[in-house]
Amino acid sequence: MEVTILGSGASLLSPDRVSSGLMVEIAGEPLIFDIGSGVLHRLSCSLQEITKIEHIFISHLHVDHVSDIFPLIQSLWLSGYDKTLNIYAPSIMQKIIEVTNEVFPYLSDKIKFKYHQLEPGFQVKTKNWNVLTFPVDHGDFEAYGFHIEAEGKRVVYSGDTAPSKEVVKAAKGADLLIHECSFPDRLKEIATTHTTPSDLGRLATEAEVKTLVIMHLYPELDEELGDALRSIRASFSGKIIVPRDTQIITL
Questions:
Q1: Which of the chain's termini has less CB crowding within 10 Å, N or C?
Q2: What's the pLDDT band for 95 if we cut at 50, 70, 90?
Q3: What CA–CA distance (Å, rounded) separates 225 from 15?
Q4: Do residues 24 and 3 lie in contact, with contact meaning Cβ atoms separated by under 8 Å?
Q5: DSSP classification of residue 157
Q6: Any idea where the domains of the chain sit in the sequence?
Q7: Architecture of domain 2-250
């Protein structure tokens, strides 16, 4: 199993980090988790044939997690895509698709896709992999994390969330926890729907994960990265990865 961090940034522009997205490749099959602004370009650098994509999982419907899905649909059409694109997303995604078809009618029938509405416990299982959905705490927004199991390994992706017992439960003993770490501790009062370094260190320790990958990094966190890592290290003794975009993690 290979995990590629396509986008490790957040909503604010960064020259080094695009918005959220990652790819998990299992037996040559790519699964996409979130596809925010800039992720499609990163995908073109990381995947030789985008027409291999058949499954996209969207954690929640904020622009920085979903905006490149429609450019992807256009790129697939122009690349001669002949499969069915499965889109797994919260309930509002169906309405977004309908509006997009009205605004860009030329895209409405160019590729086949199937929408699957996420809910807690939603599961997709094939002979090679299993993805299980669990709810997270992102304020009033319907938001989910994903537990991916394949080839004897377990990966958990939090999406955007405040510290959540659901994440701890899903990630218990996981080989890899990919978790947002949006703002430094000093901004905790405004980061009520996100996770700060100190909280993340405690969460990763409680979950007993082997390796922690931090993403969804705002510029403020990047500028104080050393302090952030020390805050995580205060309670977490496992391996920590601060990824660059397109970095591959092999399990």
A1: C
A2: confident
A3: 16
A4: yes
A5: E
A6: 2-250
A7: 4-Layer Sandwich (3.60)
Point out which residues pair with 86 in neighbouring strands. Answer: 55, 114
Helix (H, G, I), strand (E, B) or coil at 143: coil
Name the band, by pLDDT with cuts 50, 70 and 90, for residue 220.
Answer: very high
E strands present in the chain: 2-7, 21-26, 29-35, 55-57, 84-89, 112-117, 123-125, 130-135, 144-150, 153-157, 176-180, 211-215, 239-241, 247-250
Residue found by looking up tokens 């955007």 in the block: 160
Percentage of the chain exceeding pLDDT 70: 100
Q: Token pair for residue 73?
A: 């649909």
Digit-coded pLDDT (tens) for 30-60:
999 999 999 999 999 999 899 999 999 999 9
Please report which residue ranges of the chain form alpha helices under DSSP H: 39-46, 63-66, 69-78, 93-103, 165-171, 197-207, 219-223, 225-233
Q: Determine whether 100 is exposed, middle or buried from the number of CB atoms within 10 Å of its CB (0-12, 13-18, 19+).
A: middle
